[in-house]
Amino acid sequence: MDKNLLIVGAGSYAQVAFEIATDIGCFKKIGFVDDKIKSLKNGIAVIGTTRDIDCLTGEYSDIIVAIGNPEVRLSLLTRIKEKFPQNIVSLISPRAYISSAAKVMPGCIIEPMAVVHSQCVLEEGCIISAGAVVNHESTCGRGVHVDCNATVAAYACVPVGTKICSGEVYWDV
What we know:
By secondary structure, this protein is α/β, with parallel strands linked by helices. The protein contains 2 helices and 18 strands. Helix 2 (70-83) links the parallel strand 3 and strand 4. The longest helix is centred in the middle third of the chain and has 14 residues, at 70-83. It starts with a strand and ends with a strand.
């Protein structure tokens, strides 16, 4: 089977995921499913809804959930893991810095110019936006979103589903 990517979602995060996947250059084909949106802003058609994921398993080997709402993102990741054979991938921009000692779990999206330092753990379904810094030995729980130019301080443990807004610094001393 060719390495094809199915992106769940068709909003802004899906567009970012598409651009990162294109930059990575390892996918022969990239498709989208969304329950409301019929095409991306750039005109790319959505091929179905989340109910169609099962029908697309033969065509798409890999899958990523690119939806901003952490509850929806994590719910879909859980459903995919339990019911579908696709490989849940993480998309890491080639222009991000990820320490070789960091651990990135499946379903994460790491945007250009993001930094994930030594001994960090990004649990399933995290989004680390452009310019964000996850400092050394910190952990981002499932579904955490570190928005543009936000920072997670060293040794911090960010709870599941937390969004750290642009420019904020998160620490849990």
